[in-house]
From TrEMBL:
Keywords: Hydrolase. This is P-loop containing nucleoside triphosphate hydrolase protein. GO terms for cellular component: nucleus. Residues 227-361 form the AAA+ ATPase domain. Residues 1-21 are annotated as: Disordered. GO terms for biological process: ribosome biogenesis. InterPro entries: AAA+_ATPase, AAA_ATPase_domain, ATPase_AAA_core, P-loop_NTPase. GO terms for molecular function: ATP binding; ATP hydrolysis activity; preribosome binding; RNA binding. Residues 10-21 have a biased composition (Basic and acidic residues). It comes from the Eukaryota. It comes from Ophiobolus disseminans. Gene3D superfamilies: P-loop containing nucleotide triphosphate hydrolases.
């Protein structure tokens, strides 16, 4: 140890003595200490030191490309064994998750025999977090080899692999790009079939994107830069986000099959520009990643809040600047096209194509009710005759899809809370328990359904789903009116997003489908 050692005279507690002693050196550099020790121990081997952030050799091995065998047992010293790990348990991130949490093990110090192809090296891994703050949290890998050249090949392969996505989406948040498996999984569940849109518009949305990614040659022949921007706008809750997700899913499937030689198109998803380096720094990070990943689909959710007045010029610099943005298709969504600077929305090669996501018309509301009818078709407790679809569409004029969804969710919850029984079932139950009928008699379901299908006002008024739906729609209408009133009083106040309206969605998901769990993997 160099520097002034702190003299501790008390020898009462050996551990605290060591701790204070260790923390009082003038300067600590674990890397240098280790390099010195390793060179002494293996004077005949070459040493290559590789930071772990971009080249994670253990992750590469656990993906099946190499084999890392721990050498924990090679030294039988109870104190100075060659392994130090941290173990933690991460509980499920939602209380409703049915799956258990996971154990995560992080290697602080370890020694491995590392094999790939026909090569073999000794690998030390050491977390050299020095100083009092957690930054820099640096883990180095010390590779001992007889063939440095082969190690370079390994580094190339492992780093490339590390940069690629493996069932993840790149998400920009808090100032850096991170891989999100959660968003990837939710995208896997999105598809165009569950997005109700005008058919022509849906086709145009899709072909716009397909043509762009298929069209590199066309753009080059026309001598125009191969880049585009599209805006999805309209009142909240009408499918901008779910369309983006369906598009992401579609793009991931490109090139996935063997005979499909198109390039897959990853999505880069920007949540916010907020970061410790400020928005200018964020924009630089965002676009440099997009150029690296191109061809790619670059998503700015709620574009108006991302490109505020003070960052507009930085944004345009990146979009129009001298650096090539070839292969980047940007999509921005906004509930407030009017708040977007015309410079962004109107110029070619920026966001020159716009799609309006309106509130659903009558036919679309019928379609949406049919979508729920399909979802509920195997639920024995709910009678949902065809005629109800039009009835529901009639009373939900001016509703967005998200409001309609809310009407369904609230209705079903109310019914579920009450025991999930319609008035008929109640009547039958009552009869059973009250009296003469044989409790084992089968209820003739078909006959009951046929009865329900008749467009008979009396029958409908007994239908629990319809009765409850009318109540919920009324509540939502009152809520909407109240909001409109407030919007008139305070025109610049941001309107409540659909987020708050979706509060029951997860609960309902659990009721209907048993919920879905997310899980995390092992960190190295
Ligand atoms: N066009 C649509 N077709 C089917 N469901 C829709 C549609 N638009 C919205 N929804 C429902 O409303 C919810 C919110 O929609 P979203 O796409 O997030 O709206 P926004 O336009 O505000 O991005 C969705 O999760 C979906 O359940
Ligand atoms: Mg949205």
């Amino acid at each position: 140890m160099t520097g002034n050692s702190f003299q501790v005279h008390s020898s009462e507690d050996q551990t605290s003595r060591e701790y204070f002693h260790h923390s009082s050196a003038q300067r600590v550099n674990t890397d240098i200490v280790l390099v010195e020790a390793i060179r002494k121990q293996y004077p005949h081997l070459e040493l290559v030191v590789v930071p772990q952030n971009f080249t994670n050799l253990l992750a590469y091995a656990s993906a099946g490309y190499a084999k890392a065998t721990p050498l924990e047992d090679s030294v039988r010293d109870p104190v100075y064994g060659v392994s130090l790990k941290q173990r933690s348990y991460i509980p499920p991130n939602r209380r409703l998750d049915s799956r258990p949490g996971v154990f995560v093990e992080q290697i602080i110090f370890g020694k491995f025999m590392y094999k790939w192809k026909d090569q073999e090296v000794i690998l030390y891994i050491a977390n050299g977090r020095d100083g009092v703050s957690s930054y820099p949290d640096l883990t180095n890998q010390y590779i001992l080899t007889t063939n440095e050249h082969k190690v370079d090949e390994l580094l190339k392969l492992a780093s490339t692999w590390n940069q690629q996505l493996h069932n993840e989406v790149w998400v920009f948040d808090q100032g850096y790009w991170q891989k999100s498996a959660e968003l990837y999984n939710s995208v896997q569940k999105s598809d165009w079939d569950s997005v109700i849109l005008d058919e022509d518009m849906k086709k145009a949305l899709i072909s716009d994107v397909e043509n762009f990614f298929d069209g590199q040659k066309t753009y080059t022949d026309l001598k125009v830069p191969w880049k585009r921007g599209v805006i999805y706008y309209g009142p909240p809750g009408n499918g901008k986000t779910i369309s983006i997700k369906a598009m992401m899913h579609m793009l991931y499937k490109r090139g996935a099959e063997k005979d499909d030689d198109r390039l897959t198109v990853p999505t880069l998803y920007v949540r916010t520009l907020a970061s410790y380096g400020g928005p200018e720094y964020s924009l630089r990070q965002i676009f440099s990643k997009a150029r690296q990943e191109a061809p790619c689909y670059l998503v700015f959710e709620d574009l108006d809040s991302i490109v505020s007045d003070n960052v507009r010029s930085y944004f345009l610099n990146e979009v129009d600047g001298l650096t090539s943005n070839d292969g980047i298709l940007m999509v921005g969504s906004t509930n407030h096209l009017d708040r977007l600077d015309p410079g962004i929305a109107k110029r070619p090669s920026r966001f020159d194509r716009k799609y309006f996501f309106s509130n659903p018309d009558f036919d679309q509301r019928v379609q949406y009710a049919q979508f729920w009818q399909g979802k509920l078709s195997d639920n024995k407790n709910i009678d949902f005759p065809d005629v109800l679809c039009a009835k529901i569409a009639e009373i939900t004029d001016k509703f967005s899809f998200a409001y309609m969804q809310e009407a369904f969710v609230a209705t079903l919850l109310a019914i579920a809370v009450r025991g999930g029984k319609n008035p008929d079932t109640f009547a039958l139950d009552a009869q059973r328990f009250a009296g003469p009928e044989d409790p084992m008699t089968n209820v003739d379901k078909q006959a009951r359904r046929d009865r329900m299908h008749r467009d008979d006002a009396d029958d409908l008024d007994k239908l629990e789903l319809w009765v409850e739906m009318q109540k919920q729609v009324k509540i939502l209408k009152d809520e909407m009116e109240e909001k409109d009133m407030k919007a008139v009083e305070l025109p610049i106040r941001p309107r409540a997003g659909v987020g708050s309206l979706n509060r029951y969605r997860d609960e309902l998901d659990v009721l209907l489908h048993g919920g879905q769990a997310e899980h995390s993997g092992t960190r190295f």
